[in-house]
Amino acid sequence: DAKTTQPPSMDCAEGRAANLPCNHSTISGNEYVYWYRQIHSQGPQYIIHGLKNNETNEMASLIITEDRKSSTLILPHATLRDTAVYYCIAGGTGTASKLTFGTGTRLQVTL
Amino acid sequence: NAGVTQTPKFRILKIGQSMTLQCAQDMNHNYMYWYRQDPGMGLKLIYYSVGAGITDKGEVPNGYNVSRSTTEDFPLRLELAAPSQTSVYFCASKWAVGSGANVLTFGAGSRLTVL
Question: How far apart are CA A51 and CA A68, in angstroms?
Answer without folding.
Answer: 8
